[in-house]
Every structure is written in C-alpha cells, then in structure tokens.
C-alpha cells in the first residue's frame, strides 16, 4: 500500500527540481530494481508488486518492501507500463573528480542532451569497463528517469562527473581525441593509453571552445549518404575500435 | 493558417490506425521537411512557419506551403517543441521485395520494438549505403513519427520491407550471421558478400525460430560488466567491422 503523501512524494521525483532538492532519484522496473538491490546505493523505499517481490533473491539485504497493487505502481511510475515496482534511492554525493591514472580512457561528453543517448553511453562505458564519465554542465542529468532506465542497470557501475570541460581537458596532460566529420580514419589509429575521448552534442557536435583543445580529430568511415550518426552509436563504434587496438 | 478540420486530420495521423487507413505519415521539424522536399516522396501538404519557409531553397518543386503561426504548428506536432513545420506525406506502396543481388548485405531485424532504435538503425543503414531493411511483422512501424524523426532524414533513402522472417531467411541462399552473446569475435571475422545479418529484439534477442536459420553466431567483445548493448549500438559496431573487412 502507498499513502497519498507517499504517492505525491514519489511523483515529485519525476522532476529534476525535487530530485536535486531531496537528493533522491527513482529506479523503475524489474531489471533496474534488481540491479540496485545488488549495488552499494542506499535505498530509501521500494514500492513493488507481490509478483516482483517473489523474484528478489532471498539473501538480499534490503527487506522493507512496500507491496502495492499494479495500479498503485503505475500511478507513481514514469513508465508507460510498469507492473514491477519503483524504488526511491539516495543520489550519490560525488565530491572528488577521480584522477586520470595510467591505462585509462577518459570519456568526455560535451553537451549530450538526449536522456536515451546518455543512458546508452553509460551502458557502453560499463561494457568497456570504463567507470567514470566526465560531462559538461549542460549534459542531461544522470538521475533523469529516462537516463537511468536506458542504462539497463549500468548506472550502478558508472559515475558521471559534471564539470567545466575546458579547464578539465586543459589540465588532463594526456592526448585528447575528438569525434568529427573529416578527421583521421578510426580504422587506422595507433593508440596508447592513457588518452581522452570527447563526444560532441547531438545537434552541434563538439563546441568550438573544446575543439581547440583536441589533439587528434577522428572519424568513422562512411560508405553511404547519411550526414552523421547517432551520438551513442558513434561512441560505440569508436570504443570498439579503441579496444581492438590496445 | 490551418482549419479546425485540417488540424483534426493531422492529429489523427499521430496514430498508426489512421496512418494505415489513409496511407499517409507525418514528417516534422526543419531537417526532416528539408529532406522530404529533396526526395521522391509525394507531399500532400506542408504546414510551416514563415521562418522555416525562408530556409527552403528557391528551386524546390513543391510550392504550396501553408504558412501557420508557431502555436498552430505546435498543436499538430508530436514534438515537444516544433517551430518549423509538419508535412503530410504519402506512404510509399512497397509491393515487391528486392532481390538479394551480389555485393549486398541483407540487414534483417527480428522484432525491434523501440522506435528510436529502428530510426537509428535506418540512419546507420543509410551511413553504410544499405538501401533495404527486412523486418519481422512485429517490428515497430516504419512510419511511426518517432522512427521518422530519429532517422534524421535517412528514411528518404532506406526502405523497410515487413515480412515473415523464417521463410524469407530460408530462401536467401546466402550465409546468415546473427548477433548473439557468446558467438565468434567480430574482430576476427573473414567475410565475403553477399550475406545476411540478423539483429534481435531489445529484450529477447533473436527468436528461437530464427536462431535455427543462423549459420554463424557473432559477438562484440566485452571488457566490462554490462550484460548487453543497445540494439542500435550493436548494429553500428557490427556494420563498422563488416565494412572494415570487405
């Protein structure tokens, strides 16, 4: 059961304003909640159906499940259909920016705006064992429900650091690659870690201010006529090439 | 200006039922409408702002622009914000399935459900010069506004053929690859066109019925912990590898 007050509170977390004010976010659906139960995130509350509860491994530490009817879950979820549950989770306070150590690829996002793209890039980072993303201040919010959902659970293993990109890149002291049209063919790269990789925004690519700080412009070879690729797809293709070579 | 009746008609095309009944679909926003004006699609009507109209090249054949206020465009658009326009366009009647000729990659989609993923795959096909997609009957509709929008104009150069996949693949008479977890590493493939490539659905991968018809299972090598990749991202990585090798 969920009270009127709880319902109002969870619904308020659909909005960034209240997520930031309360320092909470929502994890929705079976896959996401099972991942969060298995992570080091602090869970405030889980509203779920009896049916979902039965899928939770019995040795899970969290016990205080709040069993609800499907209609109740639906009313507090951002999903079109959700018959599993909604978890209210504490945002992690990230106070320090991790140092770029050897053997690291520094993945930098310059104004990615689409939540689905950011979520897909987080999932990709997790696939390639990259634990940290460095995002411009105008990149979409990590805790946006659409971002969380499209990570397919990878948000539990990848952190996003929001910062002023120009001074960050300037201080990196490693070569920085950037995805452009008309750069060096990624099939013929010869790379040595550590290095930085900048992915630009969906509509404008890498901003002029950041372009000045790029050491090597790289490009995915094109056969046909499309003007560009989706930002997350381009990130995936570049990462596959990077991990083929080093 | 747009009449009440026209408004109701365009809004009805937000729904698949009416798109199918009338054989029409919507193209929205600056990029999409400029691409459609430059294609062989038949345009029934374009509702647009004065501001958009000024961006149309003067030698464009289509002339009957219906100039509207921004609020009028917003009222008929599926976009959250649209200050350019909405075009009503005739669906193409696809009556024959193109033959698989030499030098061709037959890209096959087994139940892709997310419109953003289908749109992104159409954009990818266009990037790699693949003009035809072969889709299971349960793949999301090509003319869904979210599909059209996420192709970024590539829907004008790529056709989707909806068919029963099993007999189609069975009759292909070329080797068929399929994306799986635990298949052959795509970095070590040796390929010779023509061949087929099957991409499975977001939640269930390639269906058991189609799996039986796959000659070679292929896999994108993984470094980290994510269980899987987004379907469109996986398609992009595989296509980049295919076009590197042949």
UniProtKB/TrEMBL annotation, chains A, B:
MF-aspect GO terms: RNA binding; RNA methyltransferase activity
Domain called MRM3-like substrate binding: residue spans: 8-81
Entries under Gene3D superfamilies matching the protein: 3.30.1330.30, 3.40.1280.10
InterPro entries, per the entry: Alpha/beta_knot_MTases, MRM3-like_sub_bind, Ribosomal_eL30-like_sf, rRNA_Methyltransferase, SpoU_MeTrfase, tRNA_m1G_MTases_N
SUPFAM superfamilies, per the entry: alpha/beta knot (SSF75217), L30e-like (SSF55315)
A Pfam cross-reference name: MRM3-like_sub_bind
Record domain tRNA/rRNA methyltransferase SpoU type: where: 105-239
Name of the protein in question: RNA methyltransferase
GO biological process: methylation; RNA processing
Keywords for this protein: Methyltransferase, Transferase
Similarity comment text for this entry: Belongs to the class IV-like SAM-binding methyltransferase superfamily. RNA methyltransferase TrmH family.
